[in-house]
């Protein structure tokens, strides 16, 4: 599905009320899933995986099963917020620091006055606090839950508790709150058009270098196993 079709599909899902986990797939996640059966199961059990990473879009095209277009998680979040104004959807934000999450909540409420930011909480809590966090989210009765705790944490957390949470749409959004709050900047358009947002992030945050090692590994794996790559439809 392209972005328009994705938003239409998710709008129906939200209206139906059944819990949906949306994963914004990228090469790092794919490699993590190939190396960790538990992470693979999380990705397989998600109701929808969208092609967020440019590497995933490239791989699909290279293997002869192209996707309609890239559906970036950051853009999908904003598209859903825009559509949500018509329905007065309630949104809960979870993750990042207290300062960032407060500013994100404030800016989103001002940008999309038709939606209701019904709650937010920073991401600094451990498993012992999970029941309390789940209770807070359930009490807020959101239609959408956006979680920003890092791909190694946010997807497993949503996957583990999605039935208890009972939120119609739950999606990990990585560093989106940092960008929305103004703490960080999104890659310039030129980087986006060149499919090189990963390079911009690496230049801005050299500490990501170790994590980025998964990218060349992904490319090599795709090229070596091109004939075995399939797209589930």
TrEMBL record:
Keywords: Cell wall biogenesis/degradation, Glycosyltransferase, Teichoic acid biosynthesis, Transferase. InterPro entries: TagA_TarA, WecG_TagA_CpsF. CDD domains: Glyco_transf_WecG_TagA. It catalyses: UDP-N-acetyl-alpha-D-mannosamine + N-acetyl-alpha-D-glucosaminyl-di-trans,octa-cis-undecaprenyl diphosphate = N-acetyl-beta-D-mannosaminyl-(1->4)-N-acetyl-alpha-D-glucosaminyl di-trans,octa-cis-undecaprenyl diphosphate + UDP + H(+). It comes from the Bacteria. The keyword Cell wall biogenesis/degradation applies. Its EC number is 2.4.1.187. Pathway: Cell wall biogenesis; teichoic acid biosynthesis. Catalyzes the conversion of GlcNAc-PP-undecaprenol into ManNAc-GlcNAc-PP-undecaprenol, the first committed lipid intermediate in the de novo synthesis of teichoic acid. HAMAP family: TagA_TarA (MF_02070). Belongs to the glycosyltransferase 26 family. TagA/TarA subfamily. NCBIfam families: wecG_tagA_cpsF. This is N-acetylglucosaminyldiphosphoundecaprenol N-acetyl-beta-D-mannosaminyltransferase. It comes from Paenibacillus shunpengii. The lineage of its organism: Bacteria, Bacillati, Bacillota, Bacilli, Bacillales.
């Amino acid at each position: 599905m392209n972005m328009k079709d994705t938003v239409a599909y998710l709008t129906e899902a939200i209206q139906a009320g059944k819990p949906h986990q949306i994963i914004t797939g990228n090469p790092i996640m794919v490699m993590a899933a190939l190396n960790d059966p538990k992470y693979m199961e999380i990705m397989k059990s998600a109701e929808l995986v969208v092609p967020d990473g440019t590497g995933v879009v490239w791989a699909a095209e290279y293997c002869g099963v192209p996707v309609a277009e890239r559906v970036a998680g950051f853009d999908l979040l904003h598209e859903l917020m825009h559509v949500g104004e018509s329905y007065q959807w309630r949104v809960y934000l979870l993750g990042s620091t207290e300062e960032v999450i407060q500013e994100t909540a404030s800016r989103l409420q001002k940008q999309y006055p038709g939606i209701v930011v019904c709650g937010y909480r920073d991401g600094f809590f451990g498993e012992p606090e999970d029941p309390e966090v789940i209770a807070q989210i359930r009490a807020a009765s959101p239609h959408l839950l956006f979680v920003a705790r890092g791909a190694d944490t946010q997807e497993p957390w949503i996957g583990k508790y999605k039935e208890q949470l009972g939120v119609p749409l739950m999606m990990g959004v990585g560093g989106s709150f940092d960008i929305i709050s103004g703490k960080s900047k999104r890659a310039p358009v030129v980087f986006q058009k060149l499919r090189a947002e990963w390079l911009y992030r690496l230049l801005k945050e050299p500490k990501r270098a170790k994590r980025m090692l998964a990218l060349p590994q992904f490319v090599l794996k795709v090229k070596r196993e091109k004939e075995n790559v399939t797209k589930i439809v």
